[in-house]
């Protein structure tokens, strides 16, 4: 039998390593099933009469993350944030003076989808979920700082309270499923919001239409581009999690036990 080419042997080793890294563990398979169940449940409940109101608080939360993303990038581009508003029709507005519109306009869609992707990735691991919940709480606190109306403040306080409660409940085990759900919700809401702006709500100007006037191309084109980027964020988060979080459930609980109370 002729000897194997060293380069081909290295290729086989590298391929085997990649396959092993991307092969889910039992706990990761469970998490993938939960992501699928969350996705199916959210899509079914999204516009179902009456039952859709179950999702209403979570929709308002993701609107808050969308507006927070506008405000955060505004701050990073030297804008002065005047206020953030979330309304009862699941819309929102961030009022700012200054900033770079080339960055702030796409920040709502891309920022909220990036936050969703981070939460999905962290939802594969209990310790990472605890850390992600602190990150999410910080986002909500900043949103509260900029909030103008009672609904925006109420959503922020309610979900900060939920995070604190889940930290206390059974040593924070529920945080993993909460963080994962908010991550899936934020990712899906971003994709739906783009379609909603560009297809179903043509009566008012969307971020995509404003960006189209600024940069050229059509609002539909920018919407599709942001849609694809959001999908990449979501898929990339799952792939990174499959590689990074190989610990079994018992190991995760041991690692997370010393973090917080």
From TrEMBL:
Keywords: Membrane, Transmembrane, Transmembrane helix. This is Peptidase M50B-like-domain-containing protein. PANTHER family: OS02G0221600 PROTEIN, PEPTIDASE M50B-LIKE-DOMAIN-CONTAINING PROTEIN. The keyword Transmembrane applies. The chain crosses the membrane at residues 32-56, 106-124, 131-147, 153-170, 177-195, 224-245. InterPro entries: Peptidase_M50B-like.
């Amino acid at each position: 039998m002729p000897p194997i080419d060293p380069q081909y042997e290295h290729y086989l080793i590298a391929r085997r390593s990649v396959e092993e890294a991307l092969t889910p563990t039992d706990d990761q398979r469970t998490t993938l099933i939960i992501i699928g169940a969350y996705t199916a449940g959210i899509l079914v409940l999204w516009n179902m009469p009456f039952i859709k109101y179950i999702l209403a608080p979570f929709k308002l939360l993701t609107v808050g993350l969308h507006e927070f993303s506008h405000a955060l990038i505004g701050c990073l581009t030297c804008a002065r944030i005047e206020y953030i508003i979330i309304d009862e029709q699941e819309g929102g507005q961030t009022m700012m003076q200054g900033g770079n519109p080339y960055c702030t306009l796409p920040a709502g869609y891309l920022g909220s989808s990036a936050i969703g992707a981070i939460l999905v990735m962290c939802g594969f691991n209990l310790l990472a979920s605890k850390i992600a919940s602190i990150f999410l709480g910080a986002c909500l606190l900043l949103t509260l700082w900029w909030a103008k109306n009672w609904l925006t403040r109420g959503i922020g306080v309610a979900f900060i309270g939920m995070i604190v409660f889940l930290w206390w409940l059974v040593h924070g085990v529920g945080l993993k499923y909460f963080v994962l759900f908010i991550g899936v919700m934020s990712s899906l809401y971003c994709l739906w919001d783009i379609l909603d702006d560009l297809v179903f709500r043509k009566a008012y100007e969307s971020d995509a239409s404003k960006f189209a006037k600024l940069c050229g191309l059509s609002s539909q084109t920018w919407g599709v581009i942001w849609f694809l980027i959001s999908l990449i964020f979501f898929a990339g988060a799952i792939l990174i999690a499959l590689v990074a979080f190989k610990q079994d459930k018992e190991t995760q609980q041991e690692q997370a036990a010393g973090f917080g109370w």
